[in-house]
Write a structure and sequence with these properties.
Blueprint lengths: L2 H7 L1 H19 L10 E2 L5 H4 L1 E2 L3 H7 L2 H21 L1 H12 L3 H12 L6 H12 L4 H6 L16 H25 L4 H9 L4 H26 L6 H5 L2 H4 L1 H4 L2 H11 L3 H28 L8
Antiparallel strand pairs: 1-2
Helix pairs in contact: 4-17, 5-10, 6-10, 7-10, 10-12, 11-12, 12-17, 16-17
Length: 300
């Protein structure tokens, strides 16, 4: 079959894909050329061509900026917390759902845990504030007058744990669906053989389940490492002022306030480009390690 014949055969699918392809081309690939402003003293009124070259000056200023390194440290710590406490939960939840024999119960629980993924961060943050805020539901039920038993919203020490809890509540079901699909492809005969050999539930999980879904877990981990410096811009921006910049500033909010708010466009672009390069290095490195371990990774 010729290429023209294939295009004619798949024209309906190509038309369906066209808006998504156009989105990525315009906002992800064409937009990459704007990174040139990281090497310029960019002024929006004169444009990219009229702005003077700064060379590596923006990067030198960035590396010497204490605020940037504080934001980077907050970003890394928050990302590590998300990986350690968020990543295992979808696996456990998928295992529980997979063990449920009644299809109606499984579908109901699956829908309930999957639904928060479609709720915007504005609503999620508002819900948590209504429950955990100083005038929230829990303090209204258990507080004594003006004494707040629960000091979460606005407490800098509670910022990182709260971000992880919100992420778990919102997106745990999304990752669970992916892992659950992988579990359905595991051969039940392997579980039966392991049980006959005397393997208990934990040994069956360790020697049958994990090896069977390892490729999917490695893929999800590599993709998560690519976003290790992206810990949720909307989620954090909505709560940054409540917790203070010292506790809640991350690289994405640092770029927003430096660029959009203060107008330091070249400096902010240098920070964003630095973040992107680190993420790319992490993806390439993790993918290479996956190949050495015998996994396919994101690409060959």
């Amino acid at each position: 079959m010729t290429h023209l014949a294939r295009l004619r055969r798949d024209r309906a699918l190509i038309l369906l894909m066209a808006p998504g392809i156009a989105y990525f081309l315009v906002f992800h690939y064409v937009a990459m050329f704007a990174n040139v402003i990281a090497f310029k003293e960019y002024v929006p009124f004169v444009g990219v061509g009229g702005s003077a070259w700064a060379g590596l000056g923006n990067f030198q200023a960035l590396l010497g900026d204490a605020g940037f390194w504080a934001a980077a440290l907050n970003t890394v710590l928050l990302s590590l917390l998300q990986i350690v406490f968020f990543f295992p939960l979808p696996v456990a939840l998928a295992m529980l759902l997979h063990s449920v024999t009644r299809g109606g119960v499984r579908k109901f629980v699956q829908s309930v845990v999957y639904l928060p993924h479609f709720v915007s961060w504005v609503i999620v943050v508002a819900l948590f504030q209504q429950v955990l805020g100083g005038a929230g539901l829990l303090n209204g039920l258990f507080g004594d007058g003006n004494a707040h038993l629960i000091d979460v919203i606005g407490n800098p020490d509670a910022f990182k744990p709260l971000m992880v809890v919100e992420l778990v509540w919102k997106d745990c079901g999304w990752v669970t669906i992916i892992i659950l699909a992988a579990l359905h492809n595991v051969d039940d005969g392997l579980y039966e053989a392991a049980a006959i050999d005397g393997a208990g539930p934990w040994r069956r999980f360790w020697h049958v389940t994990l090896p069977s879904i390892r490729a999917v877990l490695v893929l999800l981990l590599i993709l998560r490492l690519g976003d290790v410096l992206t810990v949720g811009f909307e989620q954090i921006l909505l709560q940054r002022d409540a917790f203070g910049a010292d506790a809640a500033e991350v690289i994405d909010t640092f770029v927003y306030y430096q660029g959009i708010v203060q107008g330091n466009w070249g400096f902010a672009a240098a920070a964003a480009l630095f973040k992107g390069l680190v993420g790319a290095v992490l993806v390439f490195s993790a993918n290479k390690i996956a190949h050495r371990l015998g996994e396919q990774g994101v690409y060959r």
